[in-house]
Structures are given as C-alpha cells and as structure tokens.
Amino acid sequence: MTTILIIDDDADIRYTLREICELSGWQTVEAATGRQGVAKFEQVRPDLVLVDYHMPEMDGILTVKELRRRSRQVPIIVLTVDERQEIADAFLNAGASDFALKPVKAPDLISRLKVHLRLAKVYADNEGEVYTVKGINRATLKLVTDYLKTCSTAVTIGEISQNISLAYPTVHRYLMYLLDQGEVEVEVDYGKVGRPKNKYVLREK
Question: Residues in the chain with pLDDT < 70?
Fold first, then answer.
C-alpha cells in the first residue's frame, strides 16, 4: 500500500491531510517536527512526503534538504500559504518536487499527489540522474514539455498548471529553465482588457 509521510506541527492540519489521504486509499505516517519527520522517513521509507513550510526549530527548507540527502526520487510536496516565487525557487533548489497551497483543497491535493506518485513509479527504475540541474527534476520537466507538445497555440502558466496538476510556482520555474535552454518562446497576449499575459509555446526545431 502507498504510504504518505505527513510532517506538520499543526495537529488539525495533520488530521485533515490524513483524512484526505485515507479517502484515496493511502496509509499515512505523521510527524510534528522536521526532525521527527526525517527519523520517520528513515524508518518507513514512504512513497511520498508532505512537508509544512513554517515549522519551529527546523523549517520546511531544512527538512526538505535532509530528506533529499536520504532519497533523490521520493516526491516531496511542500505545504505553504506563501506563493512568492523566490520561496518556491528556494524549495525547488533544496529538492522539493512541488507545492500545495493552504488551506488545502482535497480534490486539488489528491490530483497533485496522484501525478507525483505516478511520476515516481515511472522513473523508479531510472538509473540515470534524477535531476538535470539543481531544482529541475527530469520527470517533471518531461511532464511540462509533453503537455506543451499537445498545445497547438501558446498557453499561460495558469493553464499549464491547471491541466497537469502542478503548482503555479513549479510550472513557472520549469518554463524559465526551458526559456533559458531555448526550448520555448514567449508570446505576449495584450487582449482587450487587463494586463498583458505571457504565453508559452515550444520553439519549432
């Protein structure tokens, strides 16, 4: 059975996450601090980890770094109310796989966890390097590029996020990487009202 490790100092949130996971048929293991979480990780070797950002003594970033030292492949999803891209980049650099915003919405979280469990399973036997560069996971990168291949027109980050069940900051990070690599192009949609929107499309080869 799939095991989810929940690391959060808030007992009510742990209860909510446990209920959501058990509703999906996944068993859970819980920890109230980062240190407890790392210890539980070594004992249980879960299939996926949910980590809170704001925790005393050992915050989410330090916890993610410690978990990543112990496994390069287990998905780590960060729970946060902070949507700033610089926070997302710090977590991705530390080894996080993705994010889920608080307050948690069960359908969104379940969809996100299913995506990462599937990616982990597909790449479990991959003997190559999991990451292309710091903060860029090969499996997630392929998910983003495969989706862009299906798009006949340029799409926004929000559209990509919604359709592949990755958090907006995660998609943004991967698109910036693809831009830097010359794999995608930006089209500015000025529209009729509101601010212009950046849309992204794979560069023709």
Answer: 124-129, 131
